[in-house]
Amino acid sequence: MKDQLRCQSCGLTPLCLPVGMSEAETEKLDSIVHRNTPFHKGDHLFRQGDKFKGIYVITSGSVKSYYINKHGEECIVGFYLPGELIGLDAIHNRVYSCSVAVLETTSACEVPFSQLQNLTSEIPSLQHQLMCLLSKEVHNDCEMVAILASHSAEERLASFLLSLSSRYKSRSLSALEFNLSMSRTEIASFLGLAVETVSRTFSRFQEQGLLEVNRKQVKLLDIEALADLGGQYPHELNSGIPLNG
User: Fold this and answer.
1) Domain boundaries along the sequence of the chain
2) Locate the Cyclic nucleotide-binding domain: which residues (predicted)?
């Protein structure tokens, strides 16, 4: 059982570790990873304002990141799936700028950043991977700002669903049928829309034959039409590269 929890045998390794790491290098990384007991819905990995200690890799389940604005409202800025890293934005100020709450039963690996820094000096490919992940996060943030600034409700929701589809595909899961662990209210907060608008848009997509919704289960029926709405091209759909998140 213990071996199943090691980096070498983790099915998510290609998503978070650089290609070509030797067994000895992977064991060094494995030695600094803290594997927490499963978190449950509503639990927090960390909260806004907490001192930065390390980054987290989701290994199962899903979480949301959010901050509380000056009016005391929750503003969601991202959803994370297995294989995705959280906490990179805290490297600069050494304080977590957002809270991360669990949406469903979730497991995560915690990597102390001070130890990770020391290890990157020994393993150049690990340092390169960290830079790539930081670059990807900046790119995703810019893309999301562009979507929220100029896109309609239909375009925003289509882009969101395509992002999830692409990310599930990169994990060798179904790109066409998946579970939405987040509520309509949480989706609305993330997309900058009213929850009623999100519900109406889901209903409109169903009427147009673009998807089917059964509670939290979504089945994409016409992914090309959704791609047209979301401004994504067929080659991007096949790339497995997420639009955001």
Assistant:
1) 2-137, 151-237
2) 39-91
